[in-house]
Structure formats: C-alpha cells, structure tokens
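Example record used in the benchmark description.
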Amino acid sequence: MKIFSAEQIRACDAYTIHASGISSAELMDRAAAKCAESITGHFAKETLFVVLCGTGNNGGDGLALARILHQQGYGVKAFQLAISETMTPDCALNLERLKQLDSSLVDSVAVDTFITDIPENIIIIDAIFGTGLSRPLDGWTANFVKHINELHNCKISIDIPSGMPADTLPYESAAILTANETLSFQFYKRSFLHGETGKYAGNIHLLDIGLDPSFINATQTNYQIIDKEVVGGLYQPRKQFSHKGTYGTALLIGGSYGMMGAISLSVQGALRAGAGKVKSLVPECGYDIIQSLAPEAMCMTSGSNYIETISNWETADAVGIGPGMEKSQKTGEAIEAFLDEYKRPLVIDAGALNIIAERNELLHKIPPDSILTPHPKEFERLFGKTANSMMRLEHARTQAMRYNVVIVLKDRYTAIVTPEGECWYNTNGNAGLASGGSGDVLTGIITGLLVQNYTSVQAAMLGVYLHGLSADLALEKQSMESMLAGDIITHLGMAFKSLI
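Model output (structure tokens):
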C-alpha cells in the first residue's frame, strides 16, 4: 500500500473527479458517507455527536457527515468555527444543505469564543483542519484545540487530527487535537507512523472512498506499507520434495558472559523461521546454554567469556552477528578480521553494531546488501543524531544508499530502508514487543529467511512482518505487559500459517 504526500492525495482527488465524471462535492459526499458507515457501525442509535467544523474542505466533510448522521436518526449538532471570512465552495454547499435540512443543526462559533459544558457521553467529531493546513496553529485556533483536548469526551478525527501536518513533524509544543480514532481517507499519512505525531491519531481506520486506481498505480512514491498482500507476494511456501539442504545453513554469532539469552533467542528464531540447519558460534561459557535451549542447532565456541575469533562461516549460507556480544578489544578485532574476508550479505545487530560504531571505518567493509537492524540509539551511534524520528528515517535512507545496505530501523512502526532509498513501514505488532530479547528474535528470523533464497530486502520485509504478526497472535493469550520474547518464537508458526 502506497503512502502519498498531501499534495499527491489532492492530485489523486482531482484525477478521480475528472476520470469518474463526478463533482468535487460528490466525492466529498462519498467520503462523508464512508465516515458515517464507520461511525454507525460502532455506536448505538442513542449516541449523541458534536461535529466541530472549519471553513475548508475538512469542514465540508464534517458538515456533510452531520447531515448524513441526522438523516440516519442520530442526534447530532455541528459547530462551525469562524476561522476565515470565506469558505471553500464545497464547504459552503454543505453548510447550506445542512441548514436547509434543519437550521438548528448548525451554529457558528465566533473568534475568541469556546464551546463549554459538553457532557462526557457526547462523541466529539473533529473536522476543523485537514491536510491542507500548511502552518502550525496559533492564537485562538491553537487555544481552541487545546481546550478540546482537556475534555474527557471520546474524539474522532476526520482524515487527520486538526493541527497535525501530513508529511512533516511539527515542533514539540504544537497544538494538535488528540483523537481516540482517526478515519483516514484511503491512505496513511506519514505523520501517523512516527511517535511524535502518531500518538495524536489514536486508532487509525483507512476508508476506501474509491479514488482512481490507475492514478494510484502510476504515481511513484518512496514510501509504502508492508501489508498482507505485499507479504503474500514474497512468501515462498515449503516444497514437498525437499530436504534440510534445500533451506540453507544459518550461522548465528554472539553472546558473552551474562548475555547468552540474546544469542539463544536468535538461534531459536532462525530455527522457527525455517532455516534448514542452524549453527551458533558462542563463547565457551554459553555452550551448555545453547545446547539445552536449542538442541536442534549445532554449537561451536570461541573464547571463554566473549568471542575472540570468528570461524566456520565458510559453510554457512548466511550469517547473523551481534546479539549478546561484548564490546571487548578482541571481539572488535575478530569482527574486523571477519569483515575483511566475508563478502556475502549478513545480518548485523546489537553488539556488532556498537563495535562498528566505535570503529567507524568498518562501515565501508560491510558486504553489499547486508541487513543492519538498529534501534534508534544504535542508529545514532552509527550515523549520528537527528532532530526527530522522521529526519532519522531520511538519514537512514541516505546511509542505506551510501553503503548499499538494507537498514531495518526498529521502532513502533519499524521501517525497512533499501539500498535504492525505498522505505517500507510495518504497521502490525504491538507494545508487547517493547521488552528485552524481541530484537534478538528478529535477527534470528531475518537470518533464517536469508538462507532460504530470499533477497536481503525480502528477508527483512517478511521477517519484520512475521515478527510483528507473531506478537499480535501472542496478544490473544498474553497481555502486552506480560509478553516475552519467547512468546514471539512460540507463535511464529501460526504467523506463517496465516500467509497460506
């Protein structure tokens, strides 16, 4: 699924209007009807609504929605803020339609005035500002939004929460309406997928309003969503006539005294991801741990309490390195010597990333198409600090192209950035993943896929999607607080089955 900028969405609207032979007002009615369908499907007929409208097209959406809700028997009242002396034509048309239906259904809110005493059982629908907003809110409109945020009512935003930019991140104290639910037309906005602004959108519901598919297919964007359709095109089902050699040999390297759990989780992740054979290279202190926790894997040792040399990689089809790895001098030297010789794509995580960050010249030795899986702090150590998460992602795109690598930038919505500069956001998963070890499992899953003839980009995309889906399946039995990294491994089989 593509992610378009606000300008591209406006162009898509215009193309749809022209190609379909409909008016802009008819498209607005279509969008409002979809909103009404979503709302009435979740709220009983006794529910009361207040619709806050602006003077632009988002306000027109709200006025049209108020009309439809009233016609369907819901109690509704619209309030139009006097933001501008003029309205867009479609907003003016829908104001007139609502007044003709019943003039008491809408009131005007004068500048510097506020709506007070809204009972908490009333649902507030936000249609004040949409994606056409080009600057932060200030003055009365900013104070109005802040006032609404102080109310305890459930709030639903139409297309985008008022005050939120679609394509950028605002300054920290910007006035943005905090919604419980956002009904977004056809597409995710990039700002929904970053923590600084995504927290304002609440639960996001995409409404198909019938925008022209030929425009969508023909319009280029560097930003997309990994969804089930995309993953279905990547997944390679197991062949009936095959053997363990068909599915490759994965080597997982890592661990140190007191941190053997990390590499153990990676090994188990690779096994569950379907690698034909899995080997591990760990310090001697971890031998019994690996053999006990993952008897299906072979285990080799190097050093006593941390990795001192890296060997046996010649017989592996892919290598994952870093989980639980100590930043010792000898381990750093071992990684440097390994990168001098190893020329195939590998997966680099955790301790290995931190070692490379301290020996920055090693970035140039990373084999092409390797997969780096940093969380934000690890990314910062590798490539430098940025002002916000969207700038960090743009910086990741630059670095992926510069070093010809795939970067899996872990976050609430993990992003896979390709050497061509494409960015794929993953939207499944939940906050249960915010626990120690979940990233180590991901490293194992991606490595396990990489040995099975998936390209680096495919292994990263499929691995991240399965990782998040496994957490969602685990949530059916666990709470987000109680979820462990091992629960992800346990539910990986169910995640695979859902792809068939």
